[in-house]
Amino acid sequence: MFFLASKLSYFVREFYFFIIIDVFIFTLSTAIFFKIFRSQLSEKRKMVATSILATILFFCMSFTLSEAYFRFIYDKSDGLGFLKVNRKWHERHVRVNGDFKRDEEFKLQKNDKITRICAIGDSVTFGYGIENIKDRYTEILEKSLQENGYKVEVYNLAVSGANTSQEIETYRSFKFLSCDIILHQYTLNDIRTNEDQAKLLQENSRVSSLTKKVLDFSYFSDFIYWRLNQRYEDTFAKLQVIDFKDYENREKLNSHLSGISDYVQQVKSDGKKIIVVIFPMFYGPFDSNYPGWIHTVIGDQFAKDGTVVVDLLPIAVGKNVSDLRASPFDAHPNEYFHNLAAQRVYEPLKGLIDTN
Fold first, then answer.
1. Per-residue pLDDT, 16
2. Mean pLDDT of the chain
3. Considering only CA atoms, which of 29, 47, 255, 275 is closest in space to residue 152?
4. Are 244 and 344 found together in one domain?
5. What pLDDT, on a 0 to 100 scale, did the predictor assign at position 8?
6. Residues 266 and 334 in one domain
């Protein structure tokens, strides 16, 4: 009963303005209908007037229902973060622990009989677009290993939007967890700084003050505006250019590879094992235009330093990219691909676990 009451209270609080407007419009329309029928107008004019009034009422009610749908029912993430519905998605599905990570609370005390695996990565490992964290590849791996008799726990330390430098900092900041194995997730935008991306998103999400007032007022209007706005699609295309361009800069690439080598050596000098999982990008089809060479360069660098590398590109090739994305508007991998990733990583990861 309390749950229903809280839901009703939330609905009224969020939607009271539209309820008041609809009640007012309905009451006014009813009064006008009666006035028209009691008037001395001809039957033809009465029909025209009531038709116009009914059309206005229909559009008002349709708008309200659409608004209610996008506020309370629609539940898809937006990879760019432009849409108001994306905020709702985060409010519904993202919970963080005391260390500001999207996971259960971490235990400081470590059981020596349990292998602690710490997953470090960006929005992919964070589970952007994944409603239930149990559907992330990290949780699927943990469950599969435990069901097969391995005493493990997997902690997810991912930070959405992080690049390799920031992920290395995450590793250093969470040494207190005494992880035995580092599961490092790599994506083909980890070389870049986030300045270019932030600048692009800020510029392409900018709207006039009047438009902003309208979009802030209505989730439905906001959704339609961005769905019909070519800037939204253009932003995805420009992001792809930003994500890949630094790999073609020899100086930046060499610096990046050197940083990777230093990181791996640091992890190993700390007495930890490391496995790297390279996720593909889901912007478009995996055809001849897709930069598969980046997978090779990064994979070879990690492997050269003696790291176990799992490249997930082969399991994506040949599949329709739309079947692998979180939503048509979110290029992060969906639950299906997270499951495929877990299956592919399981055996290599299992080989690193000390069963003594």
1. 81
2. 91
3. 275
4. yes
5. 66
6. yes
Query: Which pair of structure tokens corresponds to residue 97?
Result: 């622990």
List, for residues 315-328, the tens digit of each pLDDT value.
Answer: 999 999 999 999 98
Range with the lowest mean pLDDT among 11-20, 50-59, 288-297? Answer: 11-20
Q: Which domain, by its residues, includes 123?
A: 84-195+237-350
The helices-and-strands tally (H runs, E runs) of the chain is 14, 7
- What are the residues whose beta carbons fall under 8 Å from the beta carbon of 180, sequence distance 6 or more? 115, 116, 117, 272, 273, 354
Say if residue 181 is in the same domain as residue 301: yes
With beta carbons less than 8 A apart as the criterion, state whether 85 and 74 touch.
yes
Q: At 355, phi and psi to the nearest 5? A: -95, 5
**Residue 211 domain-assigned?**
no
- In angstroms, rounded to a whole number, what is the distance separating the alpha carbons of residues 316 and 253? 25
Of the pLDDT bands very low, low, confident and very high (cuts 50, 70, 90), residue 30 is confident
| Residue 23, both tokens | 């009640």
Across the strands, what pairs with 183?
119, 275
**Domain shared by 31 and 99, yes or no:** no
Residues 52 and 186 in one domain: no
Q: Cα separation of 182 and 120, whole Å?
A: 7
* pLDDT mean over 185-190: 95
Give CA separation, 337 vs 76, 146, 181, in Å.
17, 21, 23
DSSP string, 105-162: PPPSS--TTSEEEEEE-SHHHHTTT-SSGGGSHHHHHHHHHHHTT--EEEEE---TT-
Does 102 score more than 80 pLDDT? yes
Question: Strands (DSSP E) along the chain, which ranges?
Answer: 115-120, 152-156, 181-187, 273-279, 308-311, 325-327, 330-333
Closest to 277 measured CA to CA, from 124, 152, 85, 53:
124
Q: Is 102 exposed, middle or buried (0-12, 13-18, 19+ CB in 10 A)?
A: buried
| pTM for this predicted structure | 0.89
pLDDT in tens, 132-161: 999 999 999 999 999 999 999 999 999 999
